[in-house]
Amino acid sequence: MNDKERVAKKAAMDISHGMVVGLGTGSSADCFIEALAQRHHEEGLGVQTVASSIVSMQKAQNLGLPIIAIEHLDQLDYYVDGADEVTDDLVLSKGQGADLVREKILATAADKFIVLIDQSKRVKRIGERFPVPVEVIPFSWHLVAKALRRIGGQSLLRPNANNSGLATTSYGNLVLDVDFGVSLTAEEIDNALNAMPGVIEHGIFRNLASSVYIGVAGDVEEL
Ligand code: 5RP
Fold first, then answer.
1. 35/90 same-domain check
2. What is the pLDDT of residue 113?
3. What is residue 63's three-state secondary structure?
4. Comparing C-alpha atoms, which of 24, 81, 13 is closest to residue 47?
5. pLDDT tens digits, 75-109
6. How many domains, in total, are found in the chain?
7. For 128-175, how does the pLDDT look when each residue is reduced to its tens digit (9 = 90+)?
8. pLDDT of residue 95
9. 192 and 214 share a domain?
10. What is the CB neighbour count within 10 angstroms for residue 93?
11. Which residue of the set 85, 103, 135, 201 is catalytic?
């Protein structure tokens, strides 16, 4: 078992019979979906799941996990997902994928949000390893980029995987990857982005994570 599978298994062990569980998106979330499906089948866990993306929904479906639509959700016990950066005070940056909107809705709705990472994701400052992803409604991107420049953010429109055009999110929006340098705190960036017209969602997740499980050389540490 590798470190990713180990943290995923620990998170799956937190789930009890009959819970409603949110499934994140990415390779760590994939490992969790597999570990949860295994418990569901072997122990008759009787969980219901709600996915943060089409990819996670397909994976859960293929593994026989019961899925409910996000539209029908009125209570969520757990949300389990990966992250791209995590600070010591549990601020996250997410969204190197294209499913920020549902990810943040589920992370906010959940009673507990468990984050699965390895040591390489730990940072002193959000933005240290990756620019901050900002999902924008397509016609607003230029004005949003200008507004971001005014607060010290340099944006690049994210290209698609083979660099032949622009990346689009699951909802047909564009993504600005924004370098804020070191002058603003994550809280200042979060507040500014939350108040910026044209921004649909962004990758800073503050005051949302309950625990972070970190895979460290064959062991799991908790933050
Ligand atoms: C997708 C995400 C992922 O959780 C994040 O990119 C981490 O992915 P991985 O577990 O594959 O390292 O935020 O939008």
1. yes
2. 98
3. coil
4. 13
5. 999 999 999 999 999 999 998 767 899 999 999 99
6. 2
7. 999 999 999 999 999 999 999 999 999 999 999 899 999 999 889 999
8. 82
9. no
10. 27
11. 103
Q: Could you tell me where the beta strands, DSSP code E, fall in the chain? A: 20-23, 48-51, 76-82, 85-86, 92-93, 110-118, 132-136, 154-157, 174-179, 199-202, 204-205, 211-216, 219-222
Probe residue for ligand 1, chosen from 23, 28, 101, 122 as the CB with the greatest number of ligand atoms within 8 Å: 28
Strands 211-216 and 110-118 come out as parallel
CATH (domain of 186): 3.30.70.260
Other residues' Cβ atoms within 10 Å of the Cβ of residue 207: 10
- From the DSSP assignment, how many helices (H) and strands (E) are in the chain? 6, 13
Euclidean distance between CA atoms 102 and 125, whole angstroms: 24
**Sign of the torsion formed by the C-alpha atoms of 39, 44, 45 and 51:** positive
Is the model's pTM score more than 0.70?
yes
Of residues 100 and 36, more confidently modeled: 36
Residue-wise pLDDT for 18-30, tens only, equals 999 999 999 999 9
**Up-side HSE of residue 13: CA atoms within 13 Å toward CB?**
8
Determine whether 103 is an active site residue.
Answer: yes
Neighbouring-strand partners of residue 92: 86, 205
Q: Which of 25, 59, 104, 171 to mutate to test the pocket of ligand 1 (most atoms within 8 A of CB)?
A: 25
Distance (Å) from CA 191 to ligand 1 centroid = 23
Q: Identify the domain containing residue 138 by its residue range.
A: 132-201
The number of angstroms, rounded, from the C-alpha of 51 to the middle of its chain's C-alpha atoms is 12
